[in-house]
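User:
Care to share a sequence and structure tokens?

Assistant:
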Amino acid sequence: MPRTASLYHGTCEYGEAIATEYDLVIVGMGSGGMVAAEFAATLGLKVAVVERSRVGGDCLWTGCVPSKALLASAKAAHTIRHADHYGIGASEPAIDLAAVWRRIRDVQAQIAVTDDNPERYREMGLELVIGHARVSGPTQVTVDGDRVLDARFILLCTGSRPVEPDIPGLHDAGYLTSETLFEIESPPKSVVMIGGGPIAIEMAQGFTRLGVAVTVLQNGPGILPRDEASLVAILQDRLRVEGVDLRLNANATQVRVVEGRKVVTAEIGSGRGASAAVTTAEVSADDILVAVGRRPNVDDLGLEEVGVEIGLRGVPVDARGRTSVKSIYAVGDIAGRYLFTHSAGYEGVRAVRDMFFPGKGNVDDFIPWCTFTDPELAHAGLTSAEAEAKHGEDAEVWRMELAHNDRARTDGASEGAIVIVTAKQKIVGAHILSPAAGELIHEPALAIRHGMKLSDLASLVHVYPTLATSIGMLAAESAFEKAQKYRWLVRRR
């Protein structure tokens, strides 16, 4: 493909004039790349985006979209199975797993031909180049070894891929990951899941509700170790009640195939210190899902050759999103900060802003997140343990059980709680286990972002009856406590 004859002129970090074909070349058209490209297009910049596979990245094809589509089907099955809780006759749902997977692909296809359609981005004025990109200079990207794209800036948005643990026999036996799970035609009837993070736990509950027998082997004392421990404990109990065989402190040591089934051997720890004991267990299933983390896609990008530093978690960046080569930025999973779709998009916009607007940008480290189990578990800021370690006696933990929320009770979903953590009265953490927790977390997250006090939230009138009423009730408790200090001012007869 011939290169355009019209060149843009910019200035490198040291001041000399350079000729560039593009203002910006983006490598990767996943969550970070799509948002960054759309923002750059609104600024009238000349942008090329290089994508080696499909527009949409992990979120559309292997992550958020297919997993949430599966969870929607699973929740429907669960509601039918327990309809008697609502005064309606319950029955065992007739589940067609192949049909569920077809629905997942239909949802992906709908998004692919609308919001994530490559033509949509071309209509914005972006040039979409399909091929394998290598960074061949501080301001240069080479595609498939023959086309050279010169740019003022390069933005790396190549994402990550599942970690493949070194377990003897695993590779020979074969296994699923988030990248292959939604491409299969015949879903398994039983699964051993190795890992206890968000991907494994969401799929464990979803699969179980769809009639797939699930065993989770988590090599640690609890699932979701980054979240509020007291709420995780409630969720663990819920999963077990629903039928998930959850085994903690379970280290998978070997995999073999016996009569067509995959058998995972695991060492199960119990107790602590001198009383600790280890037993060996074998778990067999039709298939294995490996979900033990992700590693950044940094291979075969030519980064080290041009001086871009690569660390254990990916490409280190400064507060502005720049790599060790200042004309090259990295956002999303490759930067190893937060492995979430929403953080990748946010970082992409901040990087473009830093490149082309006056002043210096700053990538915020405050990123809320949510694990989309039922109930959902949302997280913003410090956990209670982190706050106590950081702030000592200044840390306070406020908690409101959903059992006190009228909407939760009418909906038959009162299992859960809201936990808000303060330090010197300012909100520093918020954690919610409830239906729609991913929606509810934004109010306390905004309060954290702006250094607000819990009593400030009490001044907002919350709509009744809603789950968010509990946030107002919790804030009111703080306000009532403060009011007690001024009881002597109360006018009396």
Summary: The first helix runs from residue 31 to 42. Residues 226 and 383 are 8 Å apart (CA to CA). Residues 170-292 form a domain with the FAD/NAD(P)-binding domain fold (CATH 3.50.50.60). The chain has three domains: 8-56+116-161+295-356, 170-292, 375-482.
